[in-house]
Write a structure and sequence with these properties.
The chain is mainly beta. Among the domains are: 106 residues; 133 residues, no CATH class. The protein is 11% helix and 41% strand. The protein has 5 helices and 29 strands. Strand 16 and strand 17 form a beta hairpin. Helix 3 crosses helix 4.
């Protein structure tokens, strides 16, 4: 049987692979039609379901279909803008039987959905502009009131105490049943360009780096203290926090610093970045090198679990960072890929820093526990194009238009 549905942008099958949902962009991308089709091409819904905006997330559930769409009216003016409403995400829950919206009243977002998680009792979502809420599959809000947060929710994860959230401005733990804050006062800081975190299981505390400070939050009491001030060179701020056997490691593109458990500095290593022209060429040319197989595997894993709330662990954080920009099934953009393949990349026990060596631009391999330099890798090019596979610990280096070399960085 042929199906005459046209202009389908993408399709997804349910777990049985016997029912297919097809998405059609209409009105120049301002709206989306959803069709349900059988494997023989038959229409399973009498009428397609039309939603405002473009689909940004979609989850097939036994009790319905969760749909998130983004409406962008930023280019409209006057009466057109007034009639179209504000730019924001819309959340709907559709019947798998006929596509009708099962909710009498959709939850208000007042912004774009940045995090979207399927829970046993409902849907948990976080808004980029700030705010977290939870709604049951019957369309009833489960929090007493929407939780106010800072802008740009970087992390939402499950902990024994509740849901931890970390934004560019604040952090706290929330009771997932009612939305009430667990910490008496949220940790607040000036809007930071770089915020990173880890869990210190040895001392039962969360470590959050922001505003050139490393904050420690007691996991049981919520008490906040400043553990250390981070004075990185080269006008850099820490972008990663990692708990090691011997202390707390803070890293950025060119800096590595190990602190003891009281926040004292054990050692600090800094390698100056290569010239701006070389650095720019590296970032511009990074997409020219084929991605590693492990990258694809990690991307697929992120897709399969894109709407599952993960547990907050140090290892979990690293994998969350890896998949954070690649969560949508439609694929990863160049910008999202660059989030993973930065000038500096790390493996379990080593950090690789791009710098100028005696024989040219290259990488230095630094031990995370001692800061010692273990190896130099000269890339023999003032403008090298390369990628580091963080998981496998392999450097892929484009030597010329016809040659790509692989180096095992673990040796």
């Amino acid at each position: 049987m042929d199906n005459k549905v046209k202009n389908i942008n993408w399709m997804v099958a349910d777990n049985t692979e016997k029912e297919i949902y097809a998405f059609e962009s209409v009105n120049n991308g301002r709206n989306t039609k959803i069709h349900k089709i059988g494997t023989n091409g038959s229409q399973l819904w009498k009428d397609e379901q039309k939603v405002k905006g473009t689909i940004s997330n979609f989850e097939i559930l036994p009790n319905g279909l969760a749909v998130v769409s983004n409406v962008d009216n930023s280019g409209k003016k006057g009466l057109m803008k007034l009639a179209s409403g504000r730019s924001e995400s819309k959340i709907a829950f559709l019947s798998a039987t006929n596509g009708e919206d099962l909710w009498d009243k959709a939850p208000k977002t007042k912004g774009y959905v940045q995090h979207f998680y399927i829970m046993d009792d409902g849907i948990l979502f976080g808004i980029y502009e700030g705010g977290i809420n939870k709604i049951s599959y019957e369309g009833k809000t489960l929090f007493k009131k929407p939780l106010k947060t800072g802008e740009n929710i970087l992390t939402m994860a499950d902990t024994p105490q509740g849901l931890i959230y970390i934004t560019s401005e604040d952090a706290n733990i929330v009771n997932l049943q009612n939305g009430e804050q667990v910490w008496k006062k949220p940790l607040k800081y000036r809007r930071a360009d770089a915020v990173s975190s880890a869990y210190d299981s040895k001392n039962t505390r969360y470590l959050i780096s922001a505003d050139d400070e490393l904050f420690a939050v007691d996991a049981n009491s919520g008490e906040v203290s400043t553990l250390a001030e981070c004075d990185f060179d080269g006008k850099e701020d820490p972008t990663q926090v990692e708990v090691r056997d011997g202390g707390i490691l803070l890293t950025s593109d060119q800096n590595m610093m190990l602190l003891d458990w009281q926040g004292g500095k054990s050692w600090h290593e800094y390698y100056r970045a290569p010239g701006k022209s070389a650095f720019g060429a590296i970032i511009a040319g990074v997409t020219a090198v084929a991605a590693a197989a492990t990258s694809a595997a990690a991307y697929n894993a992120a897709n399969q679990n894109r709407n599952k709330l993960g547990n907050y662990t140090d290892r979990g954080e690293r994998y969350a960072d890896l998949g954070g920009g690649m969560a949508m099934a439609s694929g990863a953009s160049v910008a999202e890929m660059l989030k993973r393949f930065k000038a500096t990349a790390a493996t379990k026990n080593n950090q690789f820093v791009l710098t100028k060596l005696d024989d040219g631009v290259g990488l230095v391999k630094l031990n995370k526990d001692s800061g010692a330099k273990e190896k130099e890798i000269v890339l023999k090019d003032k403008k090298p194009e390369y990628q580091v596979d963080e998981i496998a610990g392999i450097l892929y280096y484009k030597a010329d238009n016809n040659s790509i070399f692989a180096y095992n960085l673990n040796k």
